[in-house]
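Take one record.
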Amino acid sequence: MKPRIIISGGGTGGHIFPALAIADELKAQFPDVSLLFVGAYNRMEMHRVPKAGYAIKGLWISGFDRKNMIRNLLFPIKLGWSFLQALFILLKFRPNVVVGTGGFASGPLVFVASLLRIPAILQEQNAYPGVTNKQLASRVNTICLGSESAQRFFPKSKTVVTGNPVRKALHQNLSRTAASKILGVDSRVFTLLVLGGSLGARKINQLVKNHLVDIKKKNIQLIWQCGHLYAEEYQPLATAGIRVVPFIDNMPAAYAVADLVVSRAGALAISELCITAKPTIFIPSPNVSENHQEKNAQALVNKEAAMMVVERHAEAEFWPVLISLIESESMRNNLSKNIKSFAHPNATKEIVSTITQNFPKS
């Protein structure tokens, strides 16, 4: 019998890309598997998932806005309707397993699947779990954790620490020369890679803009992912040696050419940086639940595996920390060696192994 799987999650790249990595591994191991994604209507997964070659259905759902309560007037209606949509999708597709990677759409889909007694698995990326996954924990079969630190939030009998799934191409040894040709940059020049997430990070963009003159004076080549929200504002700053893009499609090439990385501290970004062993300065987003990005980064800082600059001190600390790493190869090498020890290279395979334990027996 051909296995049928629904993968639900989205809202940000941190939920979408792990879901796609899981789907790719399932397809590689089981070519006849039938896969369907479920996301939130009008969120980035609705174009990212089809671009990767998978079908997706959208639920009319959004997150609860704690800052603007007026925006929540439709929330109960959206939630109820998304439960009905999830029910229709599940009854029509009849999956053997449902996988939730977090995000708005994951909640209704996994909850309704549990009511229908369909085996359900959660994949939690962060050291501090999201609200959706914490609420669903009692209703699922297994919870695959990206970090050991998250175990205390879930029933221990249900958890397995797998690490976070990352795109398969990151495991390939792409040379700096080949990566430079792909990106159209100079392989001989010290390269700084700046990542603010798929949508962009206002503070990181401001810091880089404020120090562009300093970066140019140091003859540093910059690859700057400013995010879709800020593309119009920052792309005009691109010049020779300064590449500014809304989104980097070929991240393996970007990592391969980078000598130093400045990044938000989302779980997916951290997992990729551990796999690629890149010396990194994390600037965690303060605009996330329970300040989980700072907690993600602090676990690495405590082991001398990364540097961290918090936003409230960034104006004073960013450039001194950045220049200290640019000028010290030994510091970069030490960070690279230590961050590599946090890598989980077999995470995707372990998660797929957990999923397949619920496949129908032939």
Notes: The chain has a mean pLDDT of 89. The chain is about 40% helix and 15% strand. The CA atoms of residues 134 and 188 lie 47 Å apart. The chain has two domains: 4-164+345-356, 169-340.
